[in-house]
Design brief:
By secondary structure, the protein is α/β, with parallel strands linked by helices. It is built from 13 helices and 13 strands. α2 runs antiparallel to α10, α5 packs parallel to α6 and α11 runs parallel beside α13. The chain is globular, with a radius of gyration of 22 Å. It binds pyridoxal-5'-phosphate (PLP).
């Protein structure tokens, strides 16, 4: 596990050419692709072309001639290839939060319809306390408007037991944003269906990071993020998938004109488009979607090299290496690995903690690493419950562009920051608005 061995692995890495798709700054080891993916080389030129030619010269004609109007579906079809969905089943639109608002409402309408047909009255949405807050906030808003309950589970092991006949929907993020723990999507979906419960999967930390098989798992709804592993750029549009058995039934609540069956008929009455297209709301953001397409293409570029399976193999090799190197750090540094060691239960990130008395240093350690060009991030623990929900130092290991030598160097930097106590410098305690 020395650096030389890592260089040898990099030489033999069948995916190493994929790194050339990006212009990464010199001296940076980027371990935050799980939060903001890197800039593809193609994006700046593509955006310039959309701006100067498609918009500047062709003007409004581009809605037809450049295919702007179909961009949500065209990019949706590309994302579908990464998440085990079929063509015509995904659209790229809006944010993850908004797409969750759409599908959770539809899932609850479906549960209501089943109850009206003589099924159980189901008034509960089940999720995890450690789910990403925006998912919980959107769900809180929906359940309070509908007079329902959001029931939060503390441990993944307790989820199957929580699927009673009071439950309408199981809403989970497949890979936990703090811990990097991955759920068994197929197993939990089967358990949910056996209990008459619908499933919503948030793929924010899955799409482009781990192989996802929505149709194989028989999931009901999925949403996900464009700016993380899909490299779509800051605030990139998100995506939404609805199983074909439901996509053409029920109206999602944000019934905007571009989800209409015939937007340019300008009818006064809303008539939803066929299938997933009804999940588009207003005018697609063409500049953002164009950047997203470049990002999705960087992941699809792995298809001739083995696709998501090959990316997953490298991702696990990288996270295995990172974990082994952290385990080999001197015990007195107090670094602990939170992410599951079982590869099947791991996403593409490794989350670390610091044992007391250094517990609170996690933020400053991440800042000191960033100053050295090793960019990870920090996620605050739960005050008063730091034993169960500690401060987290998060490191995303993105197989598209990270090398084994970089993973090795990152842990070497971590060791130096801790051993020299460099993190104690005052400037590393200053908190920005975004951590
Ligand atoms: C990143 C992330 C989001 C982001 O939602 P936005 O609406 O794009 O801000 C939502 N859910 C999860 C689980 C995430 O990781």
């Amino acid at each position: 596990m020395d650096r030389q061995a890592c260089l040898v692995r990099d030489e033999a890495d069948p995916l190493r050419s994929l790194r050339e798709q990006f212009d990464l700054p010199d001296g940076v080891i980027y371990l935050d692709g799980n939060s903001l993916g890197v800039l593809p080389r193609a994006t700046a030129g593509r955006i310039a072309d959309v701006v100067t030619r498609e918009w500047g010269t062709d003007l409004i004609r581009s809605w037809n001639t450049a295919g702007w109007v179909d961009l949500p579906q065209r990019i949706g079809d590309k994302i579908a290839r990464l998440i085990g969905a079929g063509p015509g089943q995904v659209v790229a639109a809006d944010s993850t939060s908004l797409n969750l608002y759409k599908v959770l409402n539809v899932a609850l309408d479906l549960a209501d319809a089943a109850a009206a047909d003589g099924g159980a009255t189901r008034r509960v949405v089940v999720s995890e306390r450690s789910n990403f807050p925006t998912d919980l906030y959107i769900a809180q808003s929906i359940v309070s408007r509908r007079g329902m309950e959001l029931r939060l589970i503390d441990s993944p092991a307790d989820i199957p037991g929580a699927l009673t006949d009071e439950v309408a929907v199981l809403m989970l993020t497949e890979v936990n944003y703090r811990t990097g723990e991955r759920h068994d999507m197929a197993g939990l979906t089967a358990a949910a269906h056996a209990a008459g419960v619908l499933t919503i999967w948030d793929l924010a930390h899955s799409a482009g990071a781990v192989p996802v098989d929505l149709l194989g798992a028989d999931a009901d709804f999925a949403i996900g993020c464009g700016y993380k592993y899909l490299n779509g750029g800051p605030g990139a549009p998100a995506f939404v998938w609805v199983h074909p058995r439901y996509a053409g039934r029920f109206r999602q609540p944000l019934s905007g004109w571009l989800g209409h069956a015939a937007p340019f008929a300008f009818d006064t009455a809303y008539e939803p488009a066929e299938g997933i297209s009804r999940y588009v709301c207003g005018t697609p953001p063409i500049l953002s979607l164009s950047a997203l397409e470049c990002g999705v293409d960087t992941v699809l570029a792995a298809e001739p090299l083995g696709g998501m399976a090959a990316l997953r193999a490298k991702s696990l090799a990288l996270t295995d290496l990172f974990i082994a190197l952290v385990d080999a750090l001197p015990a007195e540094l107090g670094v602990g690995v939170v992410t599951p060691r079982d590869p099947a239960r791991r996403g593409s990130q490794v989350s670390l903690t610091l044992a007391p008395p250094r517990h609170e240093a996690a933020y400053a350690v991440v800042q000191a690493l960033i100053a050295r060009g090793v960019i990870g991030d920090f996620r605050a623990g739960v005050p008063g419950d730091l034993a169960a929900q500690p401060h987290i130092m998060r490191f995303g290991l993105t197989p598209l562009y990270l090398s084994f030598a970089q993973a090795f160097d990152a842990v070497a930097h971590l060791r130096e920051v801790l051993e020299t106590q460099e993190w104690r410098q005052e400037r590393y305690a200053v908190k920005g608005a975004v951590t």
